[in-house]
Write a structure and sequence with these properties.
It is a single chain. The chain is of the alpha+beta class. It has a 4-stranded antiparallel beta sheet with strand order 1-2-3-4. The longest helix has 16 residues. The chain starts with 5 loop residues before the first helix and ends in a 6-residue tail after the last helix.
Amino acid sequence: MQIDELVPLTNGLSVTACGQTLVCDRTRVIPAAGDAVDMKFLIAGTDFVPRFRLSRQRISRATSDEVATIVRRVVRGAIGCRQAD
C-alpha cells in the first residue's frame, strides 16, 4: 500500500464498535520523526480524534484490508470497546 492511499481508504470507513456503526472522516497523514507517519481522523458524530503512528515500511508491506483492520482496532480502543463486534 502507498501512503497516499491512506486518506481515501480511511475517509468513509465504517466501523462497528460497542453496538454502533461509526464512520471515520477528515483523515490527516502527517510525516513523523524517523521513517514513520502519524494518522489522525475524526470519528463522525463524536469528539474522538484518534491518532496513531505507522512506519512507512509497515504501510508499504500492508494490504488495504490490513490497514483497515488497524484503523478499526484504533476506533474500538478510542471509544472504549475491548471486544470485536
